[in-house]
Amino acid sequence: MKLRHIIQESSQALRANILRSSLTIIGIVVGIFAVTAMLALGEGLSQNIIGRISSFSQGDISVQGSLTTQDLAWVTEQPYTKAAIGTVSVSGADVIIGGEDYNVTVSSIVGDFMTVQDFSILTGTMFDFKDIEFREQVVVATTDLDTKVREDTGRALVGQVISIGGQQYEVIGVVDIESAGFSRTDGTLYVPYQTVLGTLTNTSNFSTIGVSLEDSAFFEVAGKHILAGLNTSRYLASDSEDLFQVSTAQSIIESAQETTSMISLFLGIVGGIALFVGGIGTMNMMLTTVTERTKEIGLRKAIGARRRDILLQILVESVFLTSLGGIIGIALTWILAQFANQALSASGMSTLSVVVSADVVLLATVVAVGVGVVFGLYPANNASKLQPVDALRTE
Predict the structure, then answer these.
(1) In this structure, what are the phi and psi dihedrals at residue 44, rounded to the nearest 5 degrees?
(2) How far apart are CA 138 and CA 293, in angstroms?
(3) pLDDT tens digits, residue range 77-100?
(4) What H or E segment, with its residue span, contains residue 84?
(5) 59's torsion region: left (phi>0), alpha (psi -120 to 50) or beta?
(6) pTM score, two decimals?
(7) Which residues pair with 385 in a beta bridge?
(8) 13/7 Cα distance (integer angstroms)
(9) 395, exposed or middle or buried, with CB in 10 Å at 0-12, 13-18, 19+?
(10) What is the pLDDT of residues 307-343, one digit of tens each?
(11) What is the distance of C-alpha 118 from the center of its chain?
């Protein structure tokens, strides 16, 4: 029997039991929707977290410890270094803007900040982060702090005089840095290096040096060389981590990928439970169908239908049901994902999103077809084994 004839007969058989077929399809729709939605949520979470970590990390390599300006100069001179910055983190500084207290991260950066950190200037201007001698009472703010101040006071941050640790500073610019949203603070303020010394901090050392490499593929070799060089300057073993710790953006991203993969797997399993229930419903329908059509199957075998023809027809019916349910489930996920992303964006929950990627769609399609084959094989096999004489005698 030709495949098109089998498909036609399968379609007629399903239409003959339209209510039961529809209920079975609904079960698959729910299952595929659950799987696709969970995978899409995991995919969106993974992309957002990894993207934010990439922008949050300052450069390809980050060195933590008590680092001097000489250390920064040495790292900058290395042949594998494209650019480097030193960061002084100011802790415990009260920030008052427009008479209101704000929870703000205060930092001072020296070096080629624009190369190492991905950002753009939204309004105003910036001071030269490379000029280590610059000491004006000015600051640059991140866009999230500017947005917060606008919401609270109705005024733009640029041009305002604010208080940091009792010192007066003028905000001269606002920059858009994706990593700013990663912090739980209201935002970040960047203060000139010489300005913070003796006022906001008692140390001239950097807490972190961020390094952007000429070729990020050599992050592991460069990291080991930097650690060895810094340790040698302190008369320590080259691989000692007593004073300095070197981490790479790649290693952080790989760790995040492992975590998000486990989250995606868990979400997939949760959705798979609903799909399993839908598959059981499909098997139940096909077993009922085989029972009701026993005489028909016996008659077909009596006039020459082969075992594989019967097997294939029942399988086609099962796969048709699950495939149609899969298509509807995927479409439903995509439509609801658009609404969900708009709602999440409007509510400020930018860390969450639902990404219905091509991989998710392909996997859901394969799973839908696979469910039809797996849960339809047993009923199809039973039908194909029926003997014509016994089938025709069945009441």
Answers:
(1) -65, -40
(2) 84
(3) 999 999 999 999 888 889 999 888
(4) strand 81-90
(5) left
(6) 0.59
(7) none
(8) 10
(9) exposed
(10) 777 777 777 778 888 888 888 888 888 888 888 878 7
(11) 19
